[in-house]
Amino acid sequence: MWPERALLLTWRAHMIRGAYTTDVSRRLPVLHKDFLKIGNPNMIVGILDGLLEPDQIDLINLQQRLQAKAMFDLGLSHFRFGKSLNNTHWRQRVSRFYYGAYNGSKAIRYLVDGAHSTDSSDHKRIGDLPKGFPMRETYNARLKELRDDRNKCDYDHTARARDLFISQTNAEQLTGDFLRHTLAYLNGRGLDLRSRI
Question: What pTM value is reported for the model?
Fold first, then answer.
């Protein structure tokens, strides 16, 4: 049995036992901590369409939206923490700004494609934004530079602030702008994010 199928059947058993009510409108949405283990929810829905009831498909879609919201909220938390640091902590600021943008990118990619990875190679995809995303090509290039700067900040003990491609002030501006565009994009795709950047 596929691991994804086993997890989905376990999740379905929880619904049957009442841990989750199948009436989406009657329950409070709760982030399911193991949901990401089932794999790509878009593919799962495509494979199991016709095998699951519509309300169960709705639960999968709801869980996907909740996961994307949590990813965005994590990015916003990183960004806010970076902003709270004094400029003398340039390494930590740039690193947090990067992770703010990275988690915003993950939220978009997960909501649109169902793609999620915890592998370090996923960081190369920070600029892989969907068609129709504002300033897509600019963000693609600039976010990759921010990733390179984060690597300098986190791993290069000889790096100095002047070695960065993007100054910490510009990194803060870039990340703030990106998260504002991300917020609008995700809300336009049905998420109800009321965050302030």
Answer: 0.85
Check: CB of residue 7 under 8 Å from CB of residue 38: yes
**Nearest 5°: CA angle at 106, between 104 and 110?**
125
Annotate the chain with DSSP letters as a single string: --HHHHHHHHHHHHHHHTSS-S-GGGS-----TTGGGG--HHHHHHHHBTTB-HHHHHHHHHHHHHHHHHHHHHHHHHHHHHHHS-GGGHHHHHHHHHHHHHHHHHHHHHHHH-----SGGGGGGTT-PPTT-TTHHHHHHHHHHHHHHHHHHHH-TT--GGG-SS-HHHHHHHHHHHHHHHHHHHHHTT-------
Q: How many CB atoms lie within 10 A of CB 23?
A: 10
| Sequential pLDDT tens for the chain (197 residues) | 454 555 555 555 444 344 444 444 555 578 888 999 989 999 999 998 889 898 899 999 999 999 999 999 999 999 999 999 999 999 999 999 999 999 999 999 999 999 999 999 999 999 999 999 999 999 999 999 999 999 999 999 999 999 999 999 999 999 999 999 999 999 999 888 888 88
